[in-house]
Structure formats: C-alpha cells, structure tokens
Automatic annotation (TrEMBL):
Its cofactor is [4Fe-4S] cluster. This is Radical SAM protein. It comes from the Bacteria. Keywords: 4Fe-4S, Iron, Iron-sulfur, Metal-binding, S-adenosyl-L-methionine. It comes from Exilibacterium tricleocarpae. PANTHER family: ARYLSULFATASE REGULATORY PROTEIN, FEMO COFACTOR BIOSYNTHESIS PROTEIN NIFB-RELATED. SUPFAM superfamilies: Radical SAM enzymes. GO terms for molecular function: 4 iron, 4 sulfur cluster binding; catalytic activity; metal ion binding. Residues 47-182 form the Radical SAM core domain.
Length: 364
C-alpha cells in the first residue's frame, strides 16, 4: 500500500520533543520507522467479528457489527495475494469483539497466508487479542500451526474481582474457564507467547496481589508467559454507567507491589518501558490498516464510532478506496515527526478540511 508523501524523511540528527530537549534516534526506532513506512511491509488489524461473549463493565465497544461476511474475507485474501509478490513482511493482529467467535474466518485467512508464504517466503508474525474463554488447548495448538503465536489475555484480579468486571453475556463469571485454559497451555510443546494483561483499577489491588502469587507459582515458571500491567481507563461509553468507579486512580503503589510480587519476572513488561526512543502507535503507521467486520477500513481500534476513523472500504477483489484527507490525519506524525502524533495519533486528532482542487480519495 502506498505511503504518504515525505514519509521517508531523514532520521539523522536529533528528535525535538515538547520539553525543548532532544533525543537521539536509536537503531531500534530507525528500523521500526522504516518498516512502518515501507510499501514492502503490511500491518493489518483484522476484526473477524465485533460481537463478544463478554460484557465487561468498562468496555467501550457497542458490538453493532456481527460476523465478517464472505465478501470481506474474500477481499482480505485477494488483498494479500496482490501484495505478496513484493512483500517482505506481514504482521496481522486478530482483534474484536472477540475473534474466537468467528474462528472460521481466522483459520480461513490464516491458511491463505501460510499458502502464500510457501510461494513467496515473506516474514510473518501474527497475534490475537482475546478474552481467552474459548481459547482452549486444542485451539491454541491449531492456531500456532497457522502462525498465530502471540496472545494477549486480560485478567482483572483473582476470581471474585475478575468475575465482577469481566462477565459473560448471561452475567456469569469467566475466571475459572480462562484460568483453566491458561494452565492447560503449559502441556503444549508449541512455541507461543501469552501476555497476561493485568488490568489495575481502584477496586482490585488486594485481589490482584493474590492473583500475582498464583501467576508466579503456576505460570511464570514457563518462559512462554509474561506479564503486562495496565491501568483501566475510560475509553468511551461503557456497558456500565458507573464505569468511572473502575478507572485506575492512585494505583502507582499497587503497581509497584505487583512488580515486586512477580519478581520483575515481567520479563519484557512491554519493552516500551525500557526504551528511550519515541513510541510509534500502530494507528500512526502509514502501512497499517484496520479491517472491520463489514469491510470498512480504519486506523484505531478504540475510536470505532468516530467518522475520522472510517478511512475507506475494502472491495471483494482486494482493491480498496482510501480517503487521503483522513489518512493524512492519522499518519501526520511521520511527516512532522511530532512525538505525540507518533505515540497516539488519536490524541488531538485534527478535524477534516476539504481543499478545492485536491482529490480526496483514491482506489488502490
């Protein structure tokens, strides 16, 4: 897919930040910048369904769109087939909703990717953000064989607190099933990575510390499991009107205690903690597309209701239409080299201005 103009701006010299200071670009940042702006690399976030079997109290999604249609699946496969001859690297993140609710689409597209790789031999990495309820040992092994080897699964504390905030649609808890799945994965010989996302709120500090003891003794003895600590934030209109009670406030001490509890076996607590280079959000990347269940294209998995995040549509033959004005809003960090725009382009996202004499959309 074509990158915006001026995207290959030189990275030599220093990076000016808002404080008036400067940062030298590390080799890691330079590589990520190059890959994110190269037409030979493609980064896709695919939502096979926007329905979910959970009703988390702080969720920002409305579950309006159902399973991905056959036409959209065909469009994704055609897009990948067209890109394959010049592709050096492909990254796919399965998102939702809950992606395991339309596992047929995940498998179909993944098999197509594996077939393309046998012919073209491009690099490939695939991940899935899942609630972990339907991801049992058998399914994990099958998905690993299809190249999906990285999974993020959220836990909101030990059983009582987790079941309070991460409920099934029928109101029952989900902890026991997820925990059982997590334990069962250890019996597999496959190479995978399970990121345990621990969601910290103002209500679950004691429960989370109890959970961490279980995680340390039962899971972190296996290097395929890692921990990522995140604060719960209000990202939009949630299922519950009292979502604010779960938003993390004054929890830094809790986070420090959790780090100590797991012995900083937070083996790679998102490597962003360790790097001084500016963070680049997937939504800021010129070669990233989010493909929704109805074939519409976007950039951000949070701003699903914002018109500025509907940047185009995928056709059955693999061609797609992009709104250049909207694309420029999301990728502006690669033009002006602003740290905030690279780190979160949704932050202070500009309004759309129509310019006379400019073609605002293009079919690719």
């Amino acid at each position: 897919m074509p990158a915006p103009r001026r995207v290959n701006r030189s990275l030599e010299g220093r990076y000016q930040v808002e404080t008036g200071g400067s940062l030298k670009f590390g080799e890691r940042f330079k590589k990520k910048f190059f890959v994110a702006s190269s037409e030979n690399y493609l980064n896709l976030t695919i939502l096979p369904t926007e329905k979910c079997n959970f009703r988390c109290t702080y969720c920002y999604e409305d579950f309006a769109l159902g399973k991905m249609s056959t036409d959209t699946i065909k469009g994704i496969k055609s897009l990948l087939s067209k890109a394959a001859p010049t592709l050096k690297g492909l990254s796919v993140n399965w998102f939702g909703g809950e992606p395991t609710l339309h596992i047929a689409a995940v498998k179909d597209i993944s098999r197509h990717i594996m077939a393309l790789r046998r012919k073209r031999e491009f690099g490939y990495a695939a991940s899935m953000t899942t609630n972990g309820y339907l991801l049992d040992r058998e399914l994990l092994a099958e998905l690993c064989a299809l190249g999906i080897r990285k999974y993020q699964i959220s836990l909101d504390g030990d059983k009582i607190d987790h079941d309070t905030t991460r409920k099934l649609t029928n109101g029952t808890g989900s902890f026991a099933k997820i925990w059982g799945n997590l334990l069962s994965f250890r019996g597999l010989e496959d190479q995978f990575k399970i990121i345990l996302r621990l969601n910290i709120s103002s209500c679950n500090s004691v429960s989370m510390l109890k959970l961490c003891e279980r995680i340390k003794s039962r899971l972190l003895v296996d290097k395929r499991y890692v921990v990522n600590i995140e604060k719960i934030n209000n990202l939009g209109e949630g299922i519950s009107s009292d979502v604010e009670q779960y938003v993390a406030k004054d929890v830094d001490d809790t986070i420090a205690r959790i780090r100590d509890s797991v012995g900083l076996s937070l083996r790679d607590q998102d490597e962003t903690d360790k790097q001084s280079d500016p963070y680049i959000c997937y939504a800021a990347m010129p070669n990233h597309l989010m493909i929704r269940a109805d074939g519409s294209l976007g950039k951000c998995t949070v701003m699903l209701k914002d018109d500025r995040n509907i940047i185009g549509h995928l056709n059955t033959d693999g061609t797609y239409t992009l709104d250049n004005r909207k694309m420029e809003l999301w990728t502006r960090g690669f033009v002006d080299m602003d740290a905030a725009s690279l780190g979160c382009p949704a932050y202070r996202l500009p309004s759309i201005h129509t310019r006379k004499g400019v073609i605002n959309s293009v079919t690719i």
